[in-house]
Amino acid sequence: MADASSIANNGVNVAALVAAREELTKAPAAAQFKWRAACEWKDGTHSHSTVEGFYGLGQEQHHKKTFIFDADHPELFASEDKGATPVEYVLVGLASCLTAGIAAVAQYRNIQLRSVTATLEGDMDLQGILGIDDDVRNGFGGIKVTYKIDADAKREDIEALVAQSQKRSAVYDIVTNPTNVTVVVD
Amino acid sequence: MSRCLCDRSIDHVVLERGEVAHTWRTERWDSLRLLTPNWQSRLPGFSYNGDDPDGYRTVAEVIEFIASYAKAVSAPVLTHTTVTSVRRTETGYLVRSDQGDWLCRAVVVASGACNIADVPSFANRVPRSVMQLTAQDYRNPEKLADGGVLVVGASSSGTQIANEIHRSGRPVILSVGEHIRAPRVYRGKDLEWWMDAAGVLDERYDEVDDIARARRVASLQLAGTPDRSTLDINALTEIGVKLVGRIGGISENGKAQFSGSLRNMCALSDLKMGRLLDRIDEWAQRNGLDARANLPHRLPPTRVEPAPRLGMDLASGEIKAIIWATGYRPDYSWLEVPVLDRKGRLQHDGGVVSLPGMYLMGTQFMRRRKSVLIDGAGDDARDLSAHLTSYLDSGVARIRA
């Protein structure tokens, strides 16, 4: 950690986060959020997803613009490769969630970050999704995340940032714990 | 508290639903030993003078210790008196018990932090063929069927129970969530000695960053091992205990799922232990103890196999019993006064409850880090009995009385 007199600036507004935490402790109903995405099939394995509105703080909310995500499969799967595969989006979600958490925790602990990079790798045995072997699961067998972090802190403090980020990460929780999923047809 | 009230000549009674040290007589497993060393159980005007200051009391010895203290201070204890409700009156409180009612101006809630074993709601999906016990009603391995046992929780209770069950020949799978690893002996001295000497145990509730969080933190993974060995996760995997992540749920057909977060749970715990030992080392250096204590050292990281299993069919016969060592909560169902928050926690400021004339004793980090230890009762009782006395002496109380 830098000396006590210097204030780290990682571009995270910790004061706002701390204030939000206090407000939502007092008003737990406002803490109930709903995150949404919409998806439309295009052609083949190509789909077009959008993210725009969500619900929180007791009312409908909107992103500043509509975000668009094309998903497809690579040519190796006889697809046209018009976007990342859905499982790669899972890796993107995990990486961006953990990385945002690292920045926020670092700011809170007054640790100046200079660079944070992560590489992710998920192992998958295709015998699962192809129905070749029922003993093989469809999803990842495991995910490996490797961080390289340059910051004004001891190695243990950097490791503690990464550990705390996992402890408080939504996507890490979603990936490591079961979630009830209900799919209906209107 | 009774002793401190006597010192201040405050008339009082101590109501006890059973015998003195009731929970120690009825809610502890057979082999348990106190996790603090003998020398550390210091009560006002009473401390250990035996020949094994570094040992850990057995359950029988703890009962004897508490009972002899009650006798030594002539505490006005009414045994076999179960309090059924506490209500507010114009002048104070009405305390109802199965032995009659009491009107009083002040009440001290010292009913304990560990009345109810906390078990996750999905425990009702465990197949009937599997025996379920909590750390509160578990007694010894012989009461369990032969076969595998799933122990859920890796704090002090879970690790001790997992250890003795596995050693009895029943293979144990330990489900590990958040826990705080700690060496029993560090640099030649009990960890409790360091925490006591360095002032860690005396840290006050109004000095820590986030007291709500500090009060929720699991207790240290310490055990009163007769040979003073460290009973951590590495010691358990050494004898063959298998690890799984925190239990995330049980499906309707009896399949348990374990979290993939095991590695991070162990990493968090190792890092937290490292910070505690760093703090102790810095304190030792600052206070010139480096020459007298053994050299600083660190324990090897907690070993986790590359791909711990994520599921288990509880109906398969692989395990015959589950022990839930998933923590405890207090029972305040008899408090008919508005002092609980929306999560059922008693609202208080260092043991001074939000209603005038009501006080708390013996809960996690109530007033100091040591508040939950026997050794913490003395300082807390001295502070709170002073507050209670000035409350009784205050105009408000006198007018109301």
Give a description of the structure:
The complex is a heterodimer of chains A (186) and B (401). Chain A is built from 4 helices and 5 strands. Chain A has 186 residues and is an alpha+beta fold. Chain A has 2 domains: 1-28 and 85-176, GMP Synthetase, Chain A, domain 3 (2-Layer Sandwich); 32-84, no CATH class. In chain A, the strands form 2 sheets. Chain A has a 3-stranded antiparallel β-sheet with strand order 1-2-3, with no helix packed on it. Chain B has 401 residues and is α/β, with parallel strands linked by helices. Helices cover 27% and strands 18% of the residues of chain B. In chain B, strands 8-17-9-10-13 form a 5-stranded parallel β-sheet, covered by helices on one side. Chain A binds chain B through residues 28, 141-142, 156, 159-160, 163-164, 166-167, 172-173, 175-178, and chain B through 245-246, 248-249, 257, 259-261, 264, 267-268, 271, 274-275, 306-307, 342.
Instruction: Write out the CATH superfamily name of the largest domain in chain A.
Output: K homology (KH) domain
Helix/sheet category of chain B: alpha/beta
CATH second-level architecture of the largest domain in chain A: 2-Layer Sandwich
- Could you name the CATH class of the largest domain in chain A? Alpha Beta
Shape of chain B: globular
Radius of gyration of chain A, in angstroms, nearest whole number: 20 Å
Distance from first to last alpha carbon of chain B: 22 Å
The beta-strand count of chain B equals 21
What is the number of strand segments of chain A?
5
> Helical element count of chain B?
10
Percentage of β-strand residues of chain A: 25-35%
Q: How do the strands line up in the largest sheet of chain A? A: 1-2-3
- Number of distinct helices of chain A: 4
Helix content of chain B: 25-40%
- Report how far the terminal alpha carbons of chain A are from each other: 54 Å
- Average pLDDT across residues of chain A? 94
* Residue fraction in strands of chain B: 15-25%
Helix content of chain A: 25-40%
Poorly predicted segments of chain A: none
Shape of chain A: globular
